Automatic annotation (TrEMBL):
Substrate binds at residues 173, 338-339, 415, 448-452, 496, 518. One of its GO terms (biological process) is carbohydrate catabolic process. CDD domains: GH36. Its EC number is 3.2.1.22. GO terms for molecular function: alpha-galactosidase activity. Pfam families: Glyco_hydro_36C, Glyco_hydro_36N, Melibiase. It comes from Actinoplanes lutulentus. Residues 624-691 form the Glycosyl hydrolase family 36 C-terminal domain. Residues 31-258 form the Glycosyl hydrolase family 36 N-terminal domain. This is Alpha-galactosidase. It catalyses: Hydrolysis of terminal, non-reducing alpha-D-galactose residues in alpha-D-galactosides, including galactose oligosaccharides, galactomannans and galactolipids. InterPro entries: Aldolase_TIM, Alpga-gal_N_sf, Alpha-glycosidase_related, GH, Glyco_hydro_27/36_CS, Glyco_hydro_36, Glyco_hydro_36_C, Glyco_hydro_36_N. The lineage of its organism: Bacteria, Bacillati, Actinomycetota, Actinomycetes, Micromonosporales. It comes from the Bacteria. Belongs to the glycosyl hydrolase.
Length: 694
């Protein structure tokens, strides 16, 4: 059972995870103060921390110890987690402790404002198999209207260290999940998305260390927000060194109104401490995602084929049937028809929103193609974009008010499309109805759910609280996905947003994998996949093999190298198989067989990132008696072959047999001196090694 303790004589709460403890307490004014987040301490030791007198503040600085959830008001000058305005125009909060509840690992601390009809509950949840702490906040109005200007899910505080470093993910379309590691300035640093989606430019994952952590050693504190809309995280390092951050849904400038009896619940903002470096942090996150986020973690993700790069918008039954036959020959297990199958969708200018099969291209609907794909032994999947609409569509002509728009302002088109307002119950009901019918009528196994543009003119004319759409649209997406999965238990969903623009723990709670990036160039993908792996496990990472030269970069790479990079996740094929010569089709089929042999380790094993000489990098996967290595060397100068790759995750007392060569290696030798990789000569070299413990 999860270990939650309350110490009434000291007004302390202790939350124990398998390796850590998190502690908070009430001060004399009923402010909840943060006491500890890190290695295990005893109850007496936490009590000693609680008895320490807080530092005296000046008239220009914040007094007292760090608050667990800082509200605007009083001598608080850092970034607030809570900002409210009451009906009489007053701002700020003064707390009165109103009790707490515990239930199966869930702690709720209730705080009332001393005068106004406001109750805030701080929620904490721990699991007995994870060091991740889940936190969220609920805010309730028991009287006159309250305007919420900011309500974060949680704030986090670091213990004092001499310096701090932050790790976060940056990028853009075709260049998502680029890991950046830099010192924390004495300032407020804001990470945010204002797009209505998680975004390509940033991700709501953040890690901090004291500047000395490595992949295998050092203290790391990291957090991840489970939200798929706009968000904001504010990191604050003060001049005395205190470092805190607060985060939640919504970006600056939005307000939400709570009427009497209403409650707003924020998304989960989860946090993790480890003393084992960035690699241990990633492995803890991967295990948490598998055990407590994914709906079907034990399932093996199938090898898929997607028709987009083969056909573009030129989609018809005969062409897709021919591609399906070729894909089946390779050993593909899931065939996905991409954009262009519906309405008048012959390009990206028209048809989006008219979700019925194009009668010229599919005269008998999609069912004959679905049946043929199933006959070939594959699952059948389909691309959809339920949140968007082309102005040139029957849907928009019938319901122009269903899109996000603002009175007396133009409607900005991006990719020739607008965003449907799924916060509207009628729009959401329509979206669910056609998706439900489509899945049922065509026996669909898999949906690639895309969202190809950011929000603009995000208004709702006539609505009393229009900014709520920033929250309610995302909640509607969640609800539609949840209903579809409940009504169609075999249905699996891939989250996509022009590539990796919507990847977070919120969307993963109702999908099975994420389309990582539209950029499938294997050299670029090594970096993209490395950043993605900081939080997400391999089984949710969609990774495709496409044509050479690559459509995004024009880089030419060998088929073997493309496959070996894509094997690090949920493998997919996205090239034009009609142009692949027989030699490549044969090689692809052989490589897919290799992937299927190592797939249990890749998708369900424990991942270890490794770096070698020069550009050599690798990922190892420990699973049962196996250790699988995928290694890539994009470039190297003549005469500088990489040194053997150290496999530090192996048991030094064990021996391992290479399934390809039959060679037997000592675990101690592989840990200390490394594995000599059989890399082809030249650039874009790669290797797969499967070791079996004997």
């Amino acid at each position: 059972m999860p270990d939650l303790r309350y110490v009434p004589e000291q007004r302390l709460w202790l939350l124990h995870t398998p390796s850590t403890v998190y502690a908070v307490g009430l001060d004399d004014d009923d402010n909840v103060r943060h006491l500890h987040w890190g290695a295990r301490l005893t109850e007496a030791q936490i009590g000693e921390l609680a008895r320490r007198a807080p530092a005296e503040g000046s008239s220009f600085d914040t007094a007292g110890g760090p608050e667990e959830f800082g509200a605007e008001g009083g001598a608080r000058f850092g970034p607030p987690s809570l900002q409210v305005r009451f009906a009489d125009g007053s701002r700020g909060v003064e707390w009165r402790y109103a009790g707490h509840d515990t239930d199966d690992g869930h702690l709720s601390i209730h705080l009332d404002d001393r005068h106004y009809p406001l109750r805030v509950t701080l929620h904490y949840r721990v699991h007995d198999d994870s060091d991740v702490i889940e936190r969220w906040t609920s805010i309730a109005n028991t009287g006159k209207k309250i305007v919420i200007q900011r309500c974060d899910s949680a704030a986090w505080t670091l213990p004092h260290r001499g310096s701090y470093r932050m790790s976060h993910l940056v990028g853009g379309w075709n260049s998502e999940f680029r890991l950046r590691r830099t010192d924390v300035p004495v300032a407020e640093t804001v990470f945010t998305s204002r797009t209505g989606l998680t975004s390509h430019q940033a991700n709501p994952w953040l890690a901090l260390d004291d500047g000395s952590a490595s992949e295998e050693h050092g203290e790391v504190w990291s957090t991840a927000l489970a939200w798929s809309g706009s968000w904001r995280i504010t990191l604050h390092r003060g001049p005395t060194g205190r470092t805190t951050w607060t985060g939640g849904h919504g970006h600056e400038g939005l307000t939400w109104t709570l009427d009497k009896g209403e409650t707003l619940r924020t998304p989960v903002y989860a946090g993790l401490y480890t003393a084992g470096g960035f690699g241990a942090a990633s492995r803890a996150w991967h295990a948490y995602v598998s055990r407590h986020v994914l709906a079907q973690p034990a399932e093996t993700r199938p090898v898929l084929y997607n028709s987009w790069e083969a056909t573009g918008f030129d989609v018809d039954e005969a062409g897709q049937t021919a591609l399906a036959a070729r894909a089946a020959r390779l050993g593909v297990e899931l065939f996905v028809v991409d954009d262009g199958w519906f309405g008048k969708r012959v390009n990206d200018h028209a048809g989006l929103g008219d979700w019925t099969p194009n009668p010229d291209r599919f005269p008998h609907g999609l069912r004959p193609l679905a049946d043929e794909v199933h006959r070939l032994g594959m699952l059948f999947g389909l691309w959809v974009e339920p949140e968007m609409v082309n102005p040139d569509s029957d849907l928009y002509r019938a319901h122009p008010d269903w899109v996000l728009h603002t009175a007396h302002r133009g409607r900005t088109e991006m990719r020739n499309q607008l965003v449907l307002n799924l916060a509207r119950p009628d729009t959401a009901a329509w979206a669910h109805a056609w998706l439900d019918r489509l899945v049922a009528d065509n026996d669909i196994d898999f949906l690639k759910w895309d969202a190809n543009r950011a929000f603009t003119e995000a208004g709702w004319p006539g609505h009393a609280d229009p900014d709520r759409l920033w929250l309610d649209h995302t909640r509607a997406v969640y609800q539609i996905m949840d209903r579809l999965r409940a009504d169609h238990p075999r249905l699996r969903i891939e989250a996509c947003s022009g590539g990796g623009g919507r990847a977070d723990l919120g969307i993963l709670a109702r999908t099975d994998q994420v389309w990582t990036s539209d950029n499938t160039d294997p050299v670029d993908r090594i970096g993209i996949q490395d950043g993605f792996s900081q939080l997400f496990p391999a089984q949710v990472m969609g990774a495709w093999v496409t044509d050479s030269p690559n459509v995004a970069t024009a880089r030419r790479t060998p088929l073997r190298f493309r496959f070996h990079v894509a094997m690090a996740g949920a493998l997919g094929i996205g090239g034009d198989l009609t142009t692949w010569p027989e030699t490549e089709l044969k090689e692809a089929a052989e490589l897919i067989e290799v992937y299927k042999r190592i797939r249990p380790a890749v998708q369900h094993g424990t991942a270890y990132r490794m770096a070698g000489d020069g550009t050599l990098s690798a990922v190892g996967y420990a699973y049962q008696d196996q250790f699988v290595v995928l290694a890539w060397c994009p470039s190297r100068p003549f005469g500088h072959d990489p040194a053997p790759l150290r496999l530090t995750a192996l048991d030094p007392a064990a021996f391992y047999r290479d399934t390809e060569s039959g060679a037997v290696h000592s675990g101690a030798v592989l840990r200390e001196s490394g594995l000599l990789l059989d890399l082809p000569k030249g650039d874009h070299a790669s290797a797969v090694v499967q070791l079996i413990r004997i």
